[in-house]
Amino acid sequence: MTNNRQQILCVWDFDNSLIDENSDTWIVEKLAPDLRGFMSEFHRAHPGQWTALMQQVFFKLHERGITRADYERSINDIPVSSANLEAIRLLHRAGADVRILSDANTFFIEAFLKHHGLSPLISHVASNPAHFDLTGQLRIDPYTLACPLPCPCQLCPANLCKGQVLSDWLHPVSQCQFDRVFYVGDGAGDLCPALRLSRPVGYVLARAGCSLERLLSKRLALDGLVPHLPQMAATNADPPAKIGAAGPWVGVWRSGEDVFQFFSSQLNG
């Protein structure tokens, strides 16, 4: 709880947001880089079926004798900014409810959190469920929460509408209200949750040079506002752009240091 007892929710995407890689492609590069061609061919033949692709990859890795320990060693080596890890610790100390919302899988995310000592600081992990069966093969199932109506972003995969998950978190049966909601993301799949937020409560932190920044910049231009999102400076307390008349405040970050300094200014300012 912050000094003014605000209720704060901070939601992180995982791949290329909390960490600096795509965890699925990282695992393949580390354990079986020759499968890159298979992944490309499957993705071209079955667009939008990434979770099904990864199940096939896990099957092939199992055939090669890849074990849980092999996965864990590779996950432990995923590049991550120490400043992002410190940002999560800072948020937790401030009493924020910190959650992860990702189209990766629960095993990768939970193994990463355990390795970095962050598991007790994360209240929810919403991702495609994954587990090891009795033979030691890693299996993944789709999250299967789609938007009940056509998604406003028109970009959500069939298995996971992040916007719907965020909406469910923001409007629970308990009617718990958050004073501020932060969303940290990078990709096209993060547009839907970004559009579910509104000022003055909602803040979106978009990674520079990635799809989310480009899509939000396009939305700004359509609304007749600035064509490009401003870069987040470590000295700024608030991102200075907003999407539409009531959309969230948005800023662009380039490094974990940007993210940490932003949260430091928000929580301690």
Strand order of the largest sheet: 3-2-1-6-7-9-8
Low-confidence runs: none
Overall 3D geometry? globular
Which CATH first-tier class of the largest domain would you pick? Alpha Beta
Write down the Rg: 19 Å
User: Could you report the average pLDDT, rounded to the nearest whole number?
Assistant: 88
Question: Main sheet, how many strands, which sense, barrel?
Answer: 7 strands, mixed
- Structural domain tally: 2
In percent, how much strand structure appears in the residues?
Answer: 5-15%
Number of strands: 9
Provide the succession of SSEs: EHHHHHHEHEEEHEHEHEEH
Portion of residues in helices? 40-55%
Q: How far is it from the N-terminal to the C-terminal residue, by CA? A: 15 Å
CATH topology category name of the largest domain: Rossmann fold
Q: How many DSSP helices?
A: 11
Q: Class by helix and strand content? A: alpha/beta
Protein name: Pyridoxal phosphate phosphatase PHOSPHO2
InterPro entries: HAD-like_sf (IPR036412), HAD_hydro_PyrdxlP_Pase-like (IPR006384), HAD_sf (IPR023214), Pase_PHOSPHO-typ (IPR016965)
Keywords: Hydrolase, Magnesium, Metal-binding
Pfam family, one: Put_Phosphatase
Protein architecture, described:
By secondary structure, the protein is of the alpha/beta class. The chain folds into two domains: 8-19 and 81-103 and 143-268, 3-Layer(aba) Sandwich (Rossmann fold); 24-76, no CATH class. Helices cover 40% and strands 14% of the residues. It is built from eleven helices and nine strands. It has helices spanning 14-18, 23-31, 36-45, 50-63, 68-76, 82-93, 106-115, 162-170, 191-195, 211-222, 256-268, and strands spanning 8-12, 97-101, 124-126, 130-132, 138-140, 180-185, 202-207, 241-242, 249-253. The strands form two sheets. It has a seven-stranded mixed beta sheet with strand order 3-2-1-6-7-9-8, with helices on both faces. β2 (97-101), α7 and β3 (124-126) form a beta-alpha-beta unit. α2 (23-31) crosses α5 (68-76) and α6 packs parallel to α11. The two termini are 15 Å apart. The mean pLDDT is 88.
